[in-house]
Amino acid sequence: MIDWRELPSRTSKELWCVVAQVRKRAVPSVGGGSASRVVEEVRNKASKALISRTVTTSKEPAAPHLQGTQVTESESHPEWKRRRSVGGFTSDVGGKFTTTKRYAIVPTGTVEFATPWGPVGTTPNEYRNLYSGGTQLDECQVASYAPWPTASASSDAALNAFGTTAIAKCAPAEPTANLAAALLEAYHDGLPKLIGRSTWQERIYKAQKLRREAKLAGDEFLNAEFGWLPLISDVTDFVGTVIHMDKLLQQYIRDNGQMVRRKFSFPPESSVVETTARSNVYPRLGTLGGTLFDFSKMPKAVVVRRRETTVDRWFSGAFVYHLPQTFFAGLYTPFAADFQVARRLLGIDLTPDVLWELTPWSWAVDWFTNAGDVIHNAGAWANHGLVMKYGYIMEHSIVRDTYTFVGPTNQLGGGDSARPHPLVMTFESKLRRVANPFGFGLTMDALSGVQKSILAALGLTRLR
């Protein structure tokens, strides 16, 4: 049997021939009708000799109002069996799903008891009744006494709201926003060094000249006379900033489009309400029970209805994030050779001559300008870059009414054997609603141009 909660997810490319279907079936009640027999015995008071014995039988059928139904509305997916038979699913084949089911448990107890002997008018005779058969509540036969409980299912608008909350609770942190923030931090760290870049070329040239004139090879002299080590520190710090930004971008590019699955469950909701459904009641002993109770005796019993309501909701989805590769092209294509130079600067001893040879410093300003454009674009996409390959909000609600006989049975002869068992009536609903890639309750017309371009880039071009 397929668990309706675990139907795999689907992509837009597999939405061919999706047809909504409504199916309905009967759900017979458990238990129900009862057979009963009353034996009336008459005997002489003095001799105790049996004068007559009359047997009456009856059978009540299961009450039609307790016959349940199940109605299911879902989408048909012809690819389900095909994909299942060839090795399973790699994508989403789920859809909107609603099923409601009502069913009753009508236990019928079997009892036997005898009333005490009583006089037959002014004759010398006495009589008693012996009962054997079922006992139940009148609610089991009278529809107006036990209406079906109403559903506790949420509306589509409410489910969309729950789905939106679940996404906010469990979605991965916006990678595009994190990327923009990390790049901006690195950019600001490197900016002061970039501002001082205009003096680096002149300072390196002077260091070369000073070293040749002094004919000294030691950095100690250069540092003392010129401040060589601070210059090296400025250069390597700036190059390190560029390399760090490059690593951030490369990591994002590697992870771009990777799917992250998430689930979130809301705290279960439950409530119990008890009310008195009827007063002054007696057990129902088939159609023959009218002579088996003391109708004058007080107190009399009541029927209590206990309504238990439970609701479970949960979300399941898969997230991906995406930025166009064109955002980054301007940082790599024009500066491929310069990146090689930058990496070499971090791995060798830097003398004035070496630094002079390896530093075409004009690229630094251009690269940082392009990096600023990338940061701006990433920031503009920060609220759009995270999308869902699939997302579902699901709900399972149960409303259960239990009718219970409370109080004395007042059966003739005393005792409590005629007490009926409770009647249980249940209304159950299971719902699943589908998100589009940007959330619940959205349509294609409501999406921005940026969002639509992301869907096209990820192949998610069809929305429900």
Highlighted features:
464 residues; alpha+beta; five-stranded antiparallel sheet; 11 helices; 14 strands; 31% helix; disordered N terminus
What does this structure look like?
By secondary structure, the chain is an alpha+beta fold. It has one domain. 31% of the residues lie in helices and 31% in strands. The strands form two sheets. Strands 1, 2, 5, 6, 10, 11, 12, 13 and 14 form a nine-stranded mixed β-sheet that branches. The longest helix has 28 residues. The protein is rod-shaped.
Radius of gyration: 41 Å
In angstroms, what separates the terminal alpha carbons? 27 Å
Give, in order, the helices and strands. Answer: EEEEEHEEEEHHHHHEEEHHHHEEH
In which range does the helix fraction lie?
A: 25-40%
Report the biggest beta sheet as strand number plus sense, adding barrel if it closes: 9 strands, mixed
How many individual domains?
1
Query: What is the overall shape?
Result: rod-shaped
- Class by helix and strand content? alpha+beta
The proportion of residues in beta strands is 25-35%
Mean pLDDT rating: 77
The DSSP helix count reads 11
- Unreliable stretches (pLDDT < 50, length at least 5) are 1-17, 85-90
DSSP, total strands: 14
